[in-house]
Amino acid sequence: MTKQWTIDLLAADLIDRIEKKNLADRNGKLPSEKELMEHYQVSRYSLRQALSRLSKRGYIYQVQGRGSYVHDQLTQEQKAVQSDLGFTEDLAREGKLIQTVQATQRLVSYAEIDFSPSHQRFSEDQLFIEVERFRTLDDQPYLIEKSYYLADIVGQIPESAIYGSMFEYFAQEKELTVSFIDKFIRCELLTAKQAAFFGMNAGSPSLVVRDDSYLREGDLMAFSKIFYDYREATLFMHKKLQD
């Protein structure tokens, strides 16, 4: 007798196969909709509803015209941090002024970067544009951002761009549109230079967001660490319970 797959059961089975690493190919791509429909003997509607649930929970992402891919970096400890989570800087805050008061950039090699996504492999000759920005909110120290942009994707970055909105510059001037960002939250201790900006002591704690920014095609464009003054940072979460 053929098993009757409800959307709940279907989503659960897909998650189980992803976690056991026996669903996607070596590039992280899921089988086509047709293949999955034939395997489970379900309708296109049921399959898409199940895949939508996986996407909302951060297990997969979809690339238009290319299919669905697994988030390899999603681990058991990281499942609580999903795409609905952001910070006040990510929101449109009417009347609030965010400014970059100090910024530097330099071209660096793979050997020179301070951190990188654990799931991403780079060649030894990969070059990055390292950008460090010190930013204020309403003229008060708010965050320090250290980012690495893949040089072969973004090309040169003018100084005017690093003092404004980086993503807006890439979208308007280079037609590079960020489609989704993975965020990972942890606590780290501040260096003396970082602490001085916040008016704190070296070794003080900071709320840190590690994020990876991907283009529409699923290619990694940049990865960053954003250090927040834990006394000022505000978490915002929106969770949609019904479609």
From TrEMBL:
SUPFAM superfamilies to which the protein is assigned, alphabetical: Chorismate lyase-like, Winged helix' DNA-binding domain
Listed name of the protein: Transcriptional regulator, GntR family
Pfam short name (any one): GntR
SMART domains recorded: HTH_GNTR, UTRA
Entry keyword set: DNA-binding, Transcription, Transcription regulation
A GO molecular-function descriptor: DNA binding
Residue ranges constituting the HTH gntR-type domain according to the UniProt record: 4-73
Cross-referenced InterPro entries: Bact_HTH_transcr_reg, Chorismate_lyase_/UTRA_dom_sf, Tscrpt_reg_HTH_GntR, UTRA, WH-like_DNA-bd_sf, WH_DNA-bd_sf
The species this protein was found in: Enterococcus gallinarum
Superkingdom of origin organism: Bacteria
Gene Ontology biological process terms from the UniProt entry: negative regulation of DNA-templated transcription
